[in-house]
## 1
Amino acid sequence: QVQLQESGPGLVKPSQTLSLTCTVSGGSISSRGHYWSWIRQHPEKGLEWIAYTYYSGSTDYSPSLKSRVTISIDTSKNQFSLRLRSVTAADTAIYYCARNILTTIFVFDSWGQGIPVTVSS
Amino acid sequence: DIQMTQSPSTLSASVGDRVTITCRASESVSRWMAWYQQKPGKGPKLLIYDASNLENGVPSRFSGSGSGTEFTLTISSLQPDDFATYYCQQYDSYLTFGGGTKVEIK
């Protein structure tokens, strides 16, 4: 059974770049049909999808975050990563990595446990 | 963006109760609706997709119905493990989540 684990700093200063990594175990990140997403959960605004990537390097982004986000994949390490630039307090959230079900990109059957990130000076 | 409105936001119920949670979309999402359960400190768990398809391993007391703009998640007989927060999610146009329904012990 595939497992996902987020890692990265829990505290980021305003205007800096948030960088997170998701390590996939129990399965290959190069598995055909599986897309790998980042999703965040704000205390007040709820769940928000950020971006996905595919083993081929294909990506897509939430229109509201596209200008500040980069997602990348490293198949040799079975990892994918998120970079969110110019962060503000509004980016404070729990960040999850997740994998889709095979029949659709945007339904998720495997999630990490989440990593809380606070943006503060 | 398609907005998802869940009701109620909180629900108090007892073990054995039949529980229904409603999700309304701001425009039609056909049958592209999923439901998740989330417990504190954990990522969401997929329960239902395509409005009514039960995810593998999910107990049959969970069921989903609806199409277009109105959807329901029903728990036929609430069990102690079911006290959690539930979210709907549309995936007709990108994806958006509902605000959540917390099912608490009455």
## 2
Amino acid sequence: AQSVSQHNHHVILSEAASLELGCNYSYGGTVNLFWYVQYPGQHLQLLLKYFSGDPLVKGIKGFEAEFIKSKFSFNLRKPSVQWSDTAEYFCAVSTSGGSYIPTFGRGTSLIVHP
Amino acid sequence: KAGVTQTPRYLIKTRGQQVTLSCSPISGHRSVSWYQQTPGQGLQFLFEYFSETQRNKGNFPGRFSGRQFSNSRSEMNVSTLELGDSALYLCASSIPTGSYEQYFGPGTRLTVT
């Protein structure tokens, strides 16, 4: 079974700082990769996704993520965070041809100070 | 399109009781998955239903069960509640083709005392 590791459990940044959240997975086959975000008091929503093609994917609100197959990684980045980015971020991986149920990481809590 | 709805939004139960949670998926979505979210554990997959059949199951005890109706609405039941069952229970619906992108509901916050 695949597993997903999010190395940063809590991140605190000031506005305008750059953000990179790490995500690594353990599965050698073809994967679909997701980042979800959960803003305070809101439901989980999709930030961006990778299925195939260009390994650099862009999502909503200026977020992007890069799939590096050789490193089994799918790190989330944003060049300049805002206070409104304060949220919990989850990386998820599903396998093509498998049960396709995504496995989620434990999440990273991001706090952005104004 | 209306999003995924879950009822009730909040529940307080005592140990030993049972509880039923409900989820209505996005119209046209036939797959419904349930997750348990707890601080520090992230989202743990409970089970998935498609066309009224449980198609995938996570690693939870038999006290956790579910079902899906012909209109794709799903219910989740937890019997003999334990304190450790306190969590946010999330429902997600999807069209299970291609990338299997999921759409989540707001969750039901269950507190067991």
